[in-house]
From TrEMBL:
Residues 263-290 form a coiled coil. Keywords: ATP-binding, Coiled coil, Nucleotide-binding. Residues 212-224 have a biased composition (Basic and acidic residues). The lineage of its organism: Bacteria, Bacillati, Bacillota, Bacilli, Bacillales. It comes from Paenibacillus lycopersici. This is Lsa family ABC-F type ribosomal protection protein.
Length: 492
């Protein structure tokens, strides 16, 4: 067991005027299983890069542990899998590699296939297995669940639960609950470490916010009351001061000693009120610095002219003569939110592309209602780059509406001036979701919209969909989101 000490850490990118971290201090145990959470763009991956020594910073980071990073870069994916794994952990025996991948439900035969022929889920699993075989290394795991189906996520969570010594960035609430024993959270004003899983952390965080809200309300009332009392005391003091050289109503001279005593008493009362007011203001200023406000999003779906929008009957998509899915039949009616579920590679994205009108070879029949307007959120964000203004113009978006949606999804105004290629993965995905929310459509097709998206925005999007009830066909492996949003599930 050893500790990682972070003391007075301050960091900003050379091209940025705002600090990612500012004078933050905390420490973590290298035996812990840490879940690392926070809003998109708050600096989770940046912190990993600081631990890896990639950037200069102010403050200190002290650790006796060496670090490994996931996803491990594989420049040449045409090589055999066992060659790549032996390079990652050269001290591991073959039987150890086979044992580890068996824990992750991977057949031994993948070891003797080119790495590029493995599915995304298989690649994730074998790289994790190899990295954990490097003894003495503390593993920095950056969003391993992207593109993993629910079954694979459960397998990886069970695997991680048996391990120790890692920090895991993930926004999947169920996944975090299944494998971590501590939470490292980047909040608005600080970074905190707490024992427990995501659910226990969220419960404590909400309780703290509720307590601070009530304290804030009480102090606000106290400050208002003290201000009124202070005004009255000031008026009384002024009246007494003015009467020092005056007379009573009966014409007799005032006792100057009595007047002076009363003036001093009024002054002391005013000072006490001022001290109490300043103390309440100071206490109030320490509250609600970490509150995460999520404003309601809006959507304007087009009314459907007919009840049935789409009908698939025994549809199978074929690439280069090979079917990617077994025949599937389902229909989409107005108000449906159809979840396409299934393992990676089962053809979910292919079915979505077919509905979108891509000329894919297929069997069976697909009927799409005439004049159907579709809004699409795709998986891939690698094409996003350039100025935000060009993105808005190229997609013919309402600029004030689009930027308003981004602001509600926790974009700072300074982000609008940056090149999109410098956005985090979650910020790029929010860009595509905001674009879709600007589009008036009969049907919304979203393909894994939540990859990289932070927890608060996930709940914000859930609330939007349940409120406006658009007609949707979507693929998403976040189980909590599935349960909240889907009205029907089609399994491929």
């Amino acid at each position: 067991m050893s500790m990682i000490h972070v003391q007075n850490l301050t960091f900003s990118y050379p091209s940025s005027f705002d600090n990612i971290f500012e004078d933050v201090s905390f420490q973590i145990d290298t035996d812990w299983k840490l879940g690392f959470i926070g809003r998109n763009g708050r600096g989770k991956t940046t912190f990993f890069n600081l631990l890896l020594g990639k950037y200069e910073y102010n403050g200190t980071i002290v650790s006796s542990a060496a670090f490994n990073y996931f996803p491990y870069p594989v420049p040449d994916k045409s090589r055999f899998t066992h060659e790549i794994l032996e390079e990652i952990c050269p001290q591991a025996e073959d039987w150890e590699l086979l044992r580890e991948i068996s824990y992750l439900d991977i057949d031994a035969e993948v070891m003797y296939r080119p790495f590029e022929t493995l599915s995304n889920g298989e690649q994730t699993k074998v790289l994790l297995a190899a990295l954990f075989l490097n003894e003495g290394k503390f593993l920095l795991i950056d969003e391993p669940t992207n593109h993993l189906d629910i079954h694979a996520r459960k397998i990886v969570a069970n695997y991680l639960r048996r391990k120790k010594g890692f920090i895991l960035i993930s926004h999947d609430r169920n996944f975090l609950d299944g494998c971590v024993d501590h939470i490292l959270s980047i909040n608005r004003a600080d970074i905190e470490v707490q024992s427990g899983n995501y659910s226990s952390w969220k419960l404590n965080f909400d309780r703290q916010q509720e307590h601070e809200e009530k304290t804030n309300e009480r102090l606000q009332k106290d400050i208002g009351r003290l201000q009124q009392s202070s005004k009255r005391s000031a008026n009384w003091s002024n009246q007494v001061e003015a009467s020092k050289n005056g007379t009573t109503n009966s014409g007799s001279k005032l006792d100057k000693g009595f007047v002076g005593h009363k003036a001093a008493k009024m002054m002391k009362r005013a000072k006490n009120l001022e001290t109490r007011q300043n103390k309440a203001i100071e206490e109030k200023s320490t509250l609600l610095k970490n509150v995460e406000k999520t404003e309601s999003l809006q959507l304007a779906p087009l009314p459907c002219k007919s009840k049935q929008l789409i009908q698939l009957t025994d549809v199978s998509v074929r690439y280069e003569g090979e079917f990617v899915n077994k025949p599937v039949s389902f229909k989409v009616e107005a108000g449906d939110r159809v979840l396409l579920d299934g393992k990676n590679g089962s053809g979910k994205s292919s079915i979505l592309k077919l509905i979108l009108g891509e000329p894919l070879e297929h069997t069976g029949t697909l009927n799409v209602s005439s004049g159907l307007v579709i809004s699409y959120v795709q998986q891939d964000t690698s094409h996003l780059k350039g100025r935000l203004s060009d993105f808005i113009e190229g997609n013919q978006l309402d600029e004030p509406l689009f930027k308003s949606i981004l602001r509600k999804m926790d974009f700072d105004r300074i982000q609008f001036e940056k090149d999109i290629s410098h956005y985090s993965g979650g910020q790029k995905k929010k860009l595509l979701i905001a674009k879709s929310l600007c589009e008036k459509a009969h049907l919304y097709i979203w393909d894994e919209p939540l990859n990289f998206i932070d927890v608060y925005s996930r709940m914000q999007i859930e609330a939007l969909i349940t409120s406006f009830q658009p007609t949707m066909v979507f693929v998403e492996h976040d189980q909590a989101f599935q349960e909240e949003v889907a009205t029907r599930t089609v399994t491929l």
